[in-house]
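Page 42, continued from yesterday. The earlier attempt failed because a stray header line got pasted into the input along with the sequence. Redoing it now with the clean sequence only.
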Amino acid sequence: MSRLFAYCRVSTDTQTTDNQVQEIAAAGFAIDEKRVVRETVSGSQAAQQRPAFAKLLDRLESGDVLVVTKLDRLGRSALDVRTTVDHLAAQGVRVHCLALGGVDLTSPAGKMTMQVLAAVAEFELDLIRERTSAGLARAKGEGKKLGRPSALAPEAVAQVRQRLADGSATVAGLARELKVGRATIQRCAADAVAAD
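This time it went through. Structure tokens are written below.
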């Protein structure tokens, strides 16, 4: 006989999984409280690396059903969600997603739905990258300086370069004196060499 499990995840301690539990119950899934797995962890962390989800994987057996409210409860990356669902399917575990009409993600229709969603997500990511590149190119073309502002004023940069060149100071000494990191001082020196 198949057992029902629920995986409810939130990203921060200020959030609660209660709404997800209620949504699953309202969808007609009567899941025993000891089979409701609650976790507070970022969705960007791979599902199989999350402590509670990893323990859940050890409990699941062939024929079991795992219910989630949305795909992003399993992961934010289409690849991670796909990998997780494929892993569960290989164990004989079905995965139901309420946001997709309760479709079993391990079924042929569920796999097709996931492929379409993954393709749309990848397309959107490509569009975001394209828009970002175009915006950066436009800003650069308008003469705007990109990146973080310099930690040192132009006069201080010139002083750093001069003192390093004549050997009157060390990188570590200048970093302490100017209250910046050694990398900032090294960058000043490297920029001077690149400009020559």
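Notes: Residues 154-195 form one domain.
Reminder to self: strip header lines before submitting.
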